[in-house]
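Review form for a predicted model. The reviewer records the input and the model, then writes brief findings.
Reviewer: anonymous (R2)
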Amino acid sequence: MTRGVDQERLEQAAAWRTRLAESADLHAGEFSSWLAQDPRNREAWRRVQAPWDVLGQQATAPGVIRLRRAALAHAHDAMRGHLLWPKRLRGPAMLAAAAAAVLAAGAFLFWQQSRPDIFRTGFGERRIVTLSDGSQITLDSRSEVAVRYTADARSLTLVRGQAQFDVAHDVTRPFSVAAEGHKVVATGTAFDVDVLGPKLLVTLLKGHVVVLPQSAPTIPWVTDASPTGAGSATLAGAESLAASAAGDAMGRIYLDPGEQLVMSPSDAPRVSHVDIERVTAWERGEIVFDNEPLASVVQRMNRYGPRRIIVGDDRTADLLISGVFHEGDVDGFVSTVAAYLSVRAHERPDGDVVLTYHASSPMRAAGT
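Model under review:
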C-alpha cells in the first residue's frame, strides 16, 4: 500500500490534513512549500486525502465541514496516541486512524445532510426565514415548512398552514413546494401556498409556476425572454386559462400572476383571478373574506388564537360571510357573526365557542 512513500512522509501528510482542517488559510503557504519539496510528498498527500474525497459533493456544505473537522480532530487525537507505538507501525496506524475517522463520519454526514431544516410558528406568530440561496419564506400563524437543499434541487414541504415563498432565481436548481399531494415548481418567482383543511390554494404573486402531482418529476421550468421583455414558458406557457385549469396530459397546471389555483378532493381543480391584496392580507395582521362559507372562514380564524371556534352543524357551515377581521380577535368575529347571520354562539367552559344555526337571527352578509 505504501511502497514508494516512506512512513515519515505519510505521517507528515496526515498531520497536514488535520492542520488544514483546523485553519487552511493560516497554513496554506507552508503546506504548498512542503508539497513542492519532493514528489513523494505529493504522493503521500494524495493517499491521505483520498478518504476525505470519498465524501464527494456534500463535503462543501458548511454543516458537513464542521462535522468533518470534528472527525479529523478525533483522528488527530488518535494519531497522537499512536506515537507510543513502534515507529515501523506508526505510519500505517496513523493513516488507518485518519481514514477510519473520516470514513466513519461519512455515513453520519450524509445522513445529517439529508435531514430537512424545519421552520414553524405558533399561535399568532409570523416569521420570515432567509434560506442559504437568498430565497425567503414568510410563515403565517401555526404553519410549518420543511426545507431540504441539494446540489441540483431545492425541495420544500408545507406541512401545515400558509406561507409565502420569494424564490431566488436559479434555473439549474428548481424550487419546489410540496403540499397535499401536489407540488409547486419555480426557479425565480413569488407565490403563496395555503393548506386550508382538505383544500390547497396556490396563488401566484409574480413570475411563473407550474403545479404538478407530487409524484411527478421536478423538471427545471424556465422562461425565455422575448424581445419585448415578456416571458413565455418553455414547457407550456402558451396554454389558455381553460387548459391550465383542466391541467395538461401530465397533470401540470400553469399559473400567471394574479391567478389562484384551488384544489380539493371533492372538486375539479379551479383557476381564477384574485385580489392579491386580499390574499396577502394575513401579512398585515388582517383576514379578508368575500362571500365565503363560514366553515372555511372559521378554519382560517382558528389559526390565530388558542381559543377555537367550532361550527356545530352543516347548515351553519354553509352560510356565506364577507368582511375584514383582525387576526386573533375571536370575540369580535363571533359577535359579528352572531349579529349578522342566523347563528347563535355558545361559549364552552374551556373557552371554545360553538356556532349553531338559529332561524330567528338576522341573515345578511357580515362586514366590518
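Findings: The chain has three domains: 7-114, 117-276, 285-357.
Further findings: DSSP finds ten helices and 20 strands in the chain.
Recommendation: see findings above.
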